[in-house]
Amino acid sequence: EEQLVESGGGLVQPGRSLRLSCAASGFTFDDYAMHWVRQAPGMGLEWVSGISYNGETIGYADSVKGRFTISRDNAKNSLYLQMNSLRAEDTALYYCVKLTYSGSYYNWFDPWGQGTLVTVSS
Amino acid sequence: DIQMTQSPSSLSASVGDRVTISCRASESISNYLNWYQQKPGKAPKVLIYAASSLQSGVPARFSGSGAGTDFTLTISSLQPEDFATYYCQQSYSTFRVTFGQGTRLEIK
C-alpha cells in the first residue's frame, strides 16, 4: 500500500522557519514527482510546490516563491519543505502528495498524506 | 497561471438527485482536468482524471465530461456518502498546478 506520512508541523512565530518532512513507502519513490498542497482552516486547496522525480524540475506558487524550498532525498524516500520567513497566511494543513501518471501525459495527485498542521502566530 | 473557476460554490440536494458541478479554465487545458472529493477531516481523494476517466474503486454514479475550458462533474443519483466538497484541478501545467475554489455539496 502506498503511504505518505508528513511530520514537522507546529506553532511558530511570524518570521521564523520550519522544515516539513514526508516519508514515503509502498512505491518506488524515485520514479515519481512529488508535491506539497496546503489547506488553510475552512478554506480550499492551494498548491504550494512540486519537484520532479530527479529533483531537476521544481515549481512554486507565487505566494511562497523566494521563501519556501522543496527538496527530496531519494535514498531516504523522503520529501521536504523548508519554510522561511513564515507569515500568518501560511497557517494551514500541509499535505504531501504523489503525482500519479497514466501513460505519458495524464497525471493526478494520489495518494495524499494525512497532513501536518502549521500555525504561524505570535 | 491558469485560473480554475467552479460553480456553484455550494449546492443543496437530496438523496437520489442528479447533481452537476461545473469547472471553467481561464485558457484551454485540453482534457488535463481532475476531480477530487474531500470529506470533513479527511484528505482529498481523486474521483476522475483526464476529464472523464473514473479512478479505480470510484462508484459509476460519478462521471466527468468536457474539454478545452469547460468541464462538468455529474453524480447521477446522490447517495448519503456523497455529501462532501468537490474540487477540480488542472494538470496541464505539472509544476504550476491550480485548483478550483471548491463546491460544497450539502443535504437539503
Can you describe what's shown?
- The complex is a heterodimer of chains A (122) and B (108).
- Chain A starts with a strand and ends with a strand.
- Chain A has no helices and 11 strands.
- In chain A, the strands form 2 sheets. In chain A, strands 2, 4, 5, 6, 9, 10 and 11 form a 7-stranded mixed sheet that branches. Chain A has a 4-stranded antiparallel sheet with strand order 1-3-8-7, with no helix packed on it.
- With 122 residues, chain A is an all-beta fold.
- Chain A has strands at residues 3-7, 10-12, 18-25, 34-39, 45-51, 58-60, 68-73, 78-83, 92-102, 106-112, 116-120.
- Chain B is mostly beta strands.
- Helices cover 0% and strands 49% of the residues of chain B.
- Chain B has strands at residues 4-7, 10-13, 19-25, 33-38, 45-49, 53-54, 62-67, 70-75, 85-90, 98-99, 103-107.
- In chain B, strands 2, 4, 5, 6, 9, 10 and 11 form a 7-stranded mixed sheet that branches. Chain B has a 4-stranded antiparallel sheet with strand order 1-3-8-7, with no helix packed on it.
- Chain B is globular.
- The model of chain B has no long low-confidence stretch (mean pLDDT 97).
- Chain A binds chain B through residues 33, 35, 37, 44-47, 50, 52, 57-59, 62, 95, 99, 102, 105-115, and chain B through 1, 32, 34, 36, 38, 43-46, 49-50, 53, 55, 87, 89, 91, 94-102.
Descriptive terms for the model:
heterodimer, A: mainly beta, seven-stranded mixed sheet, globular, B: 108 residues, mainly beta, four-stranded antiparallel sheet, 49% strand
Provide a compact summary of the structure.
The complex is a heterodimer of chains A (122) and B (108). Chain A is an all-beta fold and 122 residues long. Helices cover 0% and strands 55% of the residues of chain A.
Mean pLDDT of chain B: 97
Supply the helix-strand structural class of chain B: mainly beta
How would you sum up the global shape of chain B? globular
How big a fraction of the residues of chain B is strand?
over 45%
Helix residue percentage of chain A: under 10%
Helix and strand pattern of chain B: EEEEEEEEEEE
Count of DSSP H/I helices of chain A: 0
Largest interface: A-B, 27 and 25 residues
Largest sheet of chain A: 7 strands, mixed
Oligomer: heterodimer
Q: Main sheet of chain B?
A: 7 strands, mixed
Supply the number of helical segments of chain B. Answer: 0
Identify low-pLDDT runs of chain B: none
- Strand runs of chain B, count: 11
The ordered H/E elements of chain A are EEEEEEEEEEE
